[in-house]
Specification:
This protein is of the alpha+beta class and about 700 residues long. The chain is about 35% helix and about 25% strand. The chain contains 21 helices and 27 strands. The strands form five sheets. Strands 1, 2, 3, 4, 5, 6 and 7 form a seven-stranded mixed beta sheet that branches. The protein has a five-stranded antiparallel beta sheet with strand order 9-8-12-11-10. It is globular and about 100 Å long. The N terminus is likely disordered.
């Protein structure tokens, strides 16, 4: 993570105030990106920055507390690790510590600006108190007013809480003398684990000079502390705000006891010699290898949890790039899929374009590369230097600019589905533990990539079917401006039963139709195509609106598809500036008058199409003068779980009234944004805006 600043900014000061007033021990502020549905970490306090490496960028659709708070506009609360594991297993796996968590949206009216996350020490009450809720609401208002930030692109600001007290020179010397008199030794580490101060006794017990220890992480400079358990204990102390302890054996056989005392600025550690009779001595690496770290373990766990929810190939590659590449300190990443005997790149980081293009589409049986070799043998390869790579694959190191690399074949049931590569610009030795973890990880990625490839194929087929059933373009009608939008549901197949059409009848008359077939599958799409064709045929035959629906209903009833269809048909006369409408169980249209007043047109709803063959429908005639806007839509635009449908329709009317008059395409985009249609959608959304201009 690239961080900046120490909190001397309005956002940093507001975050510290929020933590103080709510009693929280740690806090994070996320800002919603302007050009993509992603939350960016803007500021943080009281938590080690490496802990948040997996969460510097969070997709708005992610099933984790901060994304849900921003997406749904509500507070999310978990009182401890048990509830976190039950409600948010992906978060709990990567943060296996005991703490309470609250996430709240940062909303500017109906517009989401981001979200805030606060952590409380372990042992918090099951619910937030009234005072905490009040303080949290006030904090959200203050933070929202400071978004968007101007410097979030530089990385999140790491905000340090003020020290409990400051000391002058004499008192500082007295504190040093006090620490030196304590039995054993003491040292302090910051939130990133770096030693900031230590006593003579601590340096003697750790058996390392003070100059080597200051500014370093203990597990980086002391091989016997390289076990991930020790780094994990430091994280646990800071996040849970609970003292903790562990034992370690300093070679050859001296056991040391460590006690950790955390706060929002770091950890104070007391160390003393002890005896652990019969305790096994933990081996440590003696050669120049990189041991497995706690951070790597949690990145792997986070990836494993995320892969269970990854849907597309893009999801899989992004998870790998965001979690594993930084966890193992790699500077480059490549992910290939094997298709029809050729390599196809589906994701990459850090490689020059010419290196990616050199192997794109190459035949597996002829290409000479580590990727092809790993796919042929089914075994991972680890190259520790450019020289080792050059001996087997001449020219590769120079082309890619990479020295060391881990090449991991992706195998599913004995079948190669792809390959991923972690690459390093400098020589690197992979420890046996790292090799084992990366090899196991390749199996998880292979399964996820195989599922995602099948999903992407299905999605493409669904998209092609949908595109074939909806009109590719609407006819240009003199005197009428039109805007149409269709958004599929974000869950399930990318296909549904919503449809619309615009039909030129003669020089002065035009028909518009919008409808919604039950379901989000191929059957719904097929019925939608039949309904749209039937309406089009009856409309061009000059049939009145109520009769168009009656005849279409008879056809759908005869087909007996076991699915029902709502429909709204509008016949517009551009010469008389009138519209004749007939509905079949469809949400009522919304009309914005030329003076800006907006109202819902309450008309006879009619029976859904396909219920009974003898259903009758009624037509309603309204004035539709120039500068008016008639909005036809499907229920996905106005329905919300747990909310009244009439409230949703009234909200659409208000959004249409507030939108500035102008191009219907611009009005449609504004309405969709205010309706939240760009976020998670449980149903398809179709919108058709009709605006007479008065021209011929």
């Amino acid at each position: 993570m690239t961080a900046h600043g120490t909190g001397d900014s309005p956002l940093g000061r507001a975050l510290l105030r929020s933590m103080h007033e709510t009693g929280a021990s740690s806090g994070m502020v996320y800002e919603l990106a302007a050009d993509e549905p992603v939350l960016h970490l803007a500021a943080m306090s009281g938590i080690p920055p490496p802990v948040l490496d997996p969460w510097t960028r969070i997709a708005l659709a992610a099933p984790i507390p901060v994304a849900i708070a921003a997406r749904c506009g509500r507070r999310v609360w978990t009182s401890g690790q048990q509830q976190l594991a039950r409600d948010f297993p992906r978060t709990a796996v990567a943060l296996p510590y005991d703490f309470a968590l609250g996430a709240a949206p940062l909303n500017d009216g109906p517009v989401c600006r981001g979200a805030m996350v606060l952590l409380w020490p372990a042992g918090h009450a099951p619910e937030l108190s009234g005072a905490e809720c009040t303080a949290l609401d006030a904090a959200c208002r203050r933070l929202t007013a400071l978004l968007p930030t101007q410097d979030s692109a530089d990385g999140p600001a790491v905000v340090l809480p003020p020290p409990a007290r400051t000391a002058g020179p004499r008192e500082a010397q007295a504190a040093v003398d006090f620490a030196e008199r304590l039995p054993g030794g003491c040292f302090a580490v910051d939130l990133e684990g770096r030693i900031t101060a230590l006593t003579t006794g601590a340096a003697e017990l750790l058996d390392a000079p003070e100059s080597r220890l200051l500014g370093a992480r203990p597990w980086d400079v002391l091989p016997w502390l390289a076990d991930p358990v020790f780094e994990d204990r430091c994280r646990a102390a800071v996040i849970s705000r609970r003292p903790t302890s562990f034992h370690a054996c300093r070679p050859p056989h001296q056991w040391l006891a460590f006690r950790l005392f955390p706060d929002g600025r770091g950890v104070s550690v007391w160390v003393r010699a002890t005896v652990r009779a019969g305790a096994p001595v933990i081996p440590y690496p003696t050669d120049d290898v990189t041991p497995l770290r706690a951070a790597q373990m949690y990145h792997v766990l986070h990836l494993a949890a995320g892969l269970t929810e990854a849907v597309s190939v893009h999801d899989v590659t992004e998870l790998f790039a965001e979690q594993i590449v930084p966890a193992f300190g790699a500077q480059g990443m490549l992910m290939y899929v094997a298709e029809a005997g050729r390599l196809r790149t589906v994701g990459q980081r850090g490689y020059p374009p010419e290196a990616v293009e050199a192997y794109e589409g190459r035949l597996l049986r002829t290409a000479n590369s580590p990727t092809v070799h790993a796919l042929a043998t089914g075994e991972p390869d680890f190259f520790t230097s450019a020289e080792e790579t050059e001996r087997q694959f001449p020219g590769l190191a120079g082309l890619t600019g990479m020295a060391a690399r881990a090449v991991l074949p992706l195998i599913v049931s004995g079948r190669p589905v792809g390959c991923c590569v972690l690459a390093y610009t400098r020589p690197r030795t992979f420890s046996p533990e790292e090799r084992q973890v990366l090899t196991s990880l390749a199996g998880l990625i292979a399964q996820a990539l195989d599922r995602a490839s099948l999903y992407d194929t299905t999605q493409q087929l669904a998209h092609d079917l949908q595109a074939g059933l909806l009109p590719r373009s609407l006819p240009e009608i003199p005197g009428l401006s039109v805007a149409a939008r269709y958004l599929p549901a974000t869950r399930g197949m990318d296909i549904g039963g919503d449809f619309y059409d615009l039909i030129r009848l003669d020089a002065h008359r035009v028909a518009a139709v919008i409808g919604d077939v039950q379901g989000h599958n191929a059957a719904a799409a097929a019925l939608m195509g039949q309904a749209r064709t039937a309406v089009h045929a009856h409309a061009t035959a000059g049939v009145a609106p109520d009769e168009v629906l009656a005849r279409t209903n008879q056809l759908l009833t005869d087909l007996d598809p076991e699915l029902f269809t709502s429909c709204l048909y509008v016949l517009i006369d551009l010469r008389t500036h009138e519209a004749c409408l007939a509905g079949a169980g469809h949400p009522p249209p919304v009309l914005r008058h030329p003076d800006g007043r907006t109202g819902v047109l309450r008309m006879p709803p009619g029976l859904l199409l396909g219920v009974t063959p003898d259903a009758r429908y009624h037509a309603t005639t309204i004035a539709l003068p120039p500068q008016a806007v008639l909005a036809l839509y499907t229920d996905g635009l106005v329905e919300r779980p747990g909310a009244d449908l009439d409230e949703g329709i009234a909200g659409l009317a208000a959004d249409l009234a507030d939108a500035p008059y102008g191009d219907p395409d611009a009005v449609a985009d504004i309405v969709l944004k205010r309706r939240g249609a760009q976020a998670e959608r449980l149903d398809d959304v179709a919108l058709l805006l009709l605006a007479p201009t008065g021209g011929d």
